[in-house]
Amino acid sequence: MGKNKKVGIAVIIVIIFIILIFNANSKSNLIRQMQGPIEGTESVLTSGNNLIVISKNNHTFTWQWDNLRKWPMVAKPNAAFITPVFDNKIVYNLSNSGKLILTDLKAEKEISSLSLPYGSEPKRVKTSSNHNFGIVSFIENDVLKLALFDSALKDLSIVFQKDTNEEKFTLNDFDITDGADLIAGTGKKDKAWIFVKDIKNDKIVFEKTFDEYNQFTIVEFSPDGKTIYVAEKVRFILALDSQTGAVVRIYEMPEYQTPAHQKQNISCLAISPDNKVLAVDTEPACTIWFWDIASGKKIDEIHASDLTVSDIAFSPDSKYLATGCLVSPEIKIWKVPQLK
């Protein structure tokens, strides 16, 4: 046998060994797999002790984090979008209307409701990490508006607006702090764009563009509201100071070969409730990366699925991570890697 052939065989053996170790590590972190929505998962959230999975048809599947063996509670409202709020309730937008409805987790009883301005077009709703406050985006007379509501859904107050005719911009995502002090929005204004507004004082804290990035697609406040995490779509997560906009740290995922019809992208991110771990999923690798927030060092990575990971959420005690799949019912629970 020639020397080159022996070297080639040795390389193949080493590669197979590495793959086997990687797969073994991924499987060892898997705690449980549950049956979620048949049509696939749009988002995964933790609200109190509830693990709430929202399907692509805007149906909710609710488990208790401390009893995942029990069958989930399922609600199927006629919703255009839906989100959980504080105290075992959900808010949804009634399909083909501008009406927001507050109901219980089974969507059996309407508790209260609010109507958006006549003729407005609702786009999206998102809540703070403690689900005490929410933001709904809508278009009214070509003006993009973000309106604040609390978990009782008693009133809507406009906290941000921008005329789409006066400025060319795209708002991809927004978030709000747990105390409804700050709101952040990200997207594109020629280049990657982010703003932060002080809601209580009604003033812009900062507004910045980053020439080195094409756009920002995801934004999340840390639990303490001091840091903002923004994804630039492909490989980088920026941690910014929420008061100054200064870049505190940049988290980078490696570039890898993708199929011709797919491009590498960041699909979702989550910050643990104890503010110690950052988790980010990158597609089409279906790989979740974990970082120690304090040191900025990578802790571990897991291959979460053979299909597209749609969203992730930490458990209330930060010990576990739930993952949803965009095109299948699989809901997986993973043990969060330990800090090194």
Q: Quick one: biggest sheet?
A: 4 strands, antiparallel
- What is the helix content? under 10%
What average pLDDT do the residues reach? 91
How far apart lie the N and C ends?
45 Å
Shape estimate: globular
Read across the widest sheet, the strand sequence of neighbours is 1-28-27-26
Compute the number of helices.
Answer: 1
Structural class: mainly beta
Query: What Rg is obtained from the alpha carbons, in whole angstroms?
Result: 21 Å
Strand content: over 45%
Q: What is the number of strand segments?
A: 28
- Low-pLDDT segments, ≥5 res: 14-22
User: What sequence of helices (H) and strands (E) makes up the elements?
Assistant: HEEEEEEEEEEEEEEEEEEEEEEEEEEEE
Please tell me about this protein's structure.
- The chain has 340 residues and is mainly beta.
- It has one helix at 3-29; strands at 30-35, 41-47, 50-55, 60-64, 73-75, 79-85, 89-94, 99-104, 110-115, 121-127, 133-140, 143-150, 157-163, 170-176, 182-189, 191-198, 203-210, 218-221, 227-231, 236-241, 247-252, 265-271, 277-283, 287-292, 298-303, 309-314, 320-325, 330-335.
- The chain has a domain at 1-72 and 253-340.
- 8% of the residues lie in helices and 52% in strands.
- It is globular, with a radius of gyration of 21 Å.
- The relative contact order is 0.12.
